[in-house]
Amino acid sequence: xxxxxxxxxxxxxxxxxxxxxxxxxxxxxxxxxxxxxxxxxxxxxxxxxxxxxxxxxxxxxxxxxxxxxxxxxxxxxxxxxxxxxxxxxxxxxxxxxxxxxxxxxxxxxxxxxxxxxxxxxxxxxxxxxxxxxxxxxxxxxxxxxxxxxxxxxxxxxxxxxxxxxxxxxxxxxxxxxxxxxxxxxxxxxxxxxxxxxxxxxxxxxxxxxxxxxxxxxxxxxxxxxxxxxxxxxxxxxxxxxxxxxxxxxxxxxxxxxxxxxxxxxxxxxxxxxxxxxxxxxxxxxxxxxxxxxxxxxxxxxxxxxxxxxxxxxxxxxxxxxxxxxxxxxxxxxxxxxxxxxxxxxxxxxxxxxxxxxxxxxxxxxxxxxxxxxxxxxxxxxxxxxxxxxxxxxxxxxxxxxxxxxxxxxxxxxxxxxxxxxxxxxxxxxxxxxxxxxxxxxx
Length: 442
Known about the structure:
The protein has 442 residues and is an alpha/beta fold. 40% of the residues lie in helices and 14% in strands.
């Protein structure tokens, strides 16, 4: 099997700022499911590039506006984008099925963590890119998209997680909303104070109470404690070490010993509670900022989630959306080259992926643009995410040969949180099932 390992380093200050300085200017689908198309209808004139995405909510609306702008302005001449949005839960299964059958789209969105699974079904960008293409992206994000010397995707963004908090509830509890917790001692004090002095719950590790949301939080806290999900060559599960077991115990204690939340993992319960002033803090990705900003009168901020007990170093979990060039023998050379130009335009020319969707753009022009730096999200969230990026504090999910974003793979985390299993029982179940996945591909 071809290597699925890639660079695991996060964005270093030197690389990130060096990438930004290179320019003067400067945002968590189907076979042929035409009935699922939510984007623009394809035009029969000129060249139409089929583009599959999985974005919904604010991300979906923002990507739709990006595609609409392309189709309105026609920056590449008589070229249109046919955007097909396929639901998250179905996206990678349908994409995999389509690519196996050589019926994939021209370009598609893919999380960088899943590129190992799809590696053999992607066309490398290498021969189609100009020599200066690498200079247009943050260097570490550009390098993260390489496999065995091949540039397998173009990075669209980085989307790390942080802790979002309700400033009004902080004030109600007598806490200073301008001085959020910086370590576990301060975090515990804040949570205990909120539960004692308000009617709100203090903290939930994800607003959706879903397995993937809890995985993101687990990775951040586990990495802070010195842990890793797997060994370096991806042959053995390692998240059941002392660091991982301590993180699992924390998930259990939040709804048990500490009483900061209730042991109920009903879908979106914490999201509703947070937006209704009944939950003070929750942990989520960059995309959550645009959701909260759209709520009239909701006073929120975000802080670095470096609050794990026994923290050794500050880390937060992050991922990247990328644009891939799927294998399709029916696509001729001309259309392939146009597809690459479209992918470059989408990833490089749209700072609104940051200003509206809330993600950190991977293109240096967009990252350093006035539009991004002057947006309402910059002081509330993006500047903090940028600081963590600059300080080399992103922990990426490894690029596994299995679907690391499959919710059922990590459903033992909600069970621990809901007290349906003890931390030891839940972690043992997770270790055994995920080790089998690894063994099956080795």
